[in-house]
Amino acid sequence: GARDTGRGTVFNGPAAVTSNGVVQDGWTGPAKLKYTGSNTLTLNNTNTYSGGTSLTIAGSTLIANHDGALGIGDVSLTAGSVTLTLQNGVTQNYINDAASLSIVTGDTVNLNYAATDLVATLVVNGVTVAPGLYGSGAINPNGIFTGTGFITVLVPEPSVYMLLGVGILIGGQRFLGRRKSA
Fold first, then answer.
1. Neighbour tally for 48: CB within 10 Å
2. Which has the closest alpha carbon to 83: 34, 145, 172?
3. For the chain, how are helix, strand and coil distributed in percent, rounded to 5?
4. What is the pLDDT along the chain (182 residues), one digit of tens a residue?
5. Which of 74, 80, 124, 131 has the most CB atoms lying inside 10 A of its own CB?
6. What DSSP designation does 180 have?
7. C-alpha gyration radius of the chain
8. Do the Cβ atoms of 83 and 62 come closer than 8 Å?
């Protein structure tokens, strides 16, 4: 069954669970969706919760059957031998573009679509991987990805590099200015 913990929604138990409603943040702030069951949780709607999604029991499966099914927070497969399936979306945007996807060896991520889903970062076994195209037909760490779709890890925004460059330039000018006046 499902229960609202005040800070999120936990789905648990040995039976398969299907959610057709919208999981959203509570009045106390960001909510997290956690699946601790030993079967399959299927999300059939766009969800708006922002606290992230996690699968914590080995052997569990989460099926995102709709664009935005995984809310707007990070997605973490924290136990080995869990399965995440992304399918049936129109725009193939199951994981928010600003979110991180964390997976470990032994997990399976089924990309059952014919396009790409963008993510900000991909973490494999605790290590953030380089930007690029990931999937069974591209970079596939430890054979985790299956299916015809792809996950694209975005290159950080140029504005971050520009701000860093401007800071270095200003710091350098201040240092040189002090040397000349000494």
1. 13
2. 145
3. 15, 35, 50
4. 444 444 678 888 889 999 999 998 877 788 899 998 889 999 999 999 999 999 988 999 999 999 999 999 999 998 889 999 999 999 999 999 999 999 999 999 999 999 999 999 999 999 999 999 999 999 999 999 999 999 999 988 665 445 555 445 554 445 455 555 55
5. 74
6. H
7. 20
8. yes
